[in-house]
Design goal:
It contains four helices and four strands; from the N terminus they run E-E-E-H-E-H-H-H. With about 140 residues, the protein is of the alpha+beta class. The chain folds into two domains: about 90 residues, no CATH class; about 40 residues, no CATH class. It starts with a strand and ends in a 7-residue tail after the last helix.
């Protein structure tokens, strides 16, 4: 099952799906491909570039699993999801959040505050020499 981007065909502006059924299926799983982010945006209608089509075809032929793009799902997992074939249920395109080292950020902020205090002190010395009031 392959999900394609929205506004790809003249007759519909919603995302479409291609379902490939095989009579002589060898595998006991379903390959889900989420190709909704692979397109070229045009003014009126989106289009698939040759490299997008090639990636879809190669993924389908070779049954390749790729994070955020394709995944083979067992029939048991599909059954556990009440046979829901929503592609985003099985292939999420969400990006994981970057892990932030809070100690490093805190150390950097402390260092910046120290530099600000030093620069303010130096600036105030210049202001004192000029007979002007210091900044706080």
């Amino acid at each position: 099952m392959t999900g394609l981007p929205a506004n790809l065909f003249f007759s519909t502006g919603i995302p479409v799906c291609i379902l490939v059924l095989k009579k002589c299926k060898k595998y006991d799983d379903v390959l889900f491909i989420n190709a909704g982010e692979y397109f070229e945006k045009d003014k009126r209608q989106n289009s698939l570039r040759p490299e997008h089509i090639e990636k879809i075809v190669e993924t389908c032929k070779s049954r390749i699993e790729e994070e955020r793009y394709s995944r083979r799902v067992s029939m048991n997992e599909i059954a556990k999801n009440n046979y829901n074939l929503n592609i985003s249920r099985y292939v999420s395109t969400a990006k994981s959040e970057e892990i932030i080292d809070l100690k490093a950020v805190n150390d950097e902020l402390v260092n910046i505050e120290k530099k600000i205090a030093e620069a303010t002190e130096k600036h105030n010395q210049f202001l004192k020499e000029l007979g002007l009031p210091p900044v706080s």
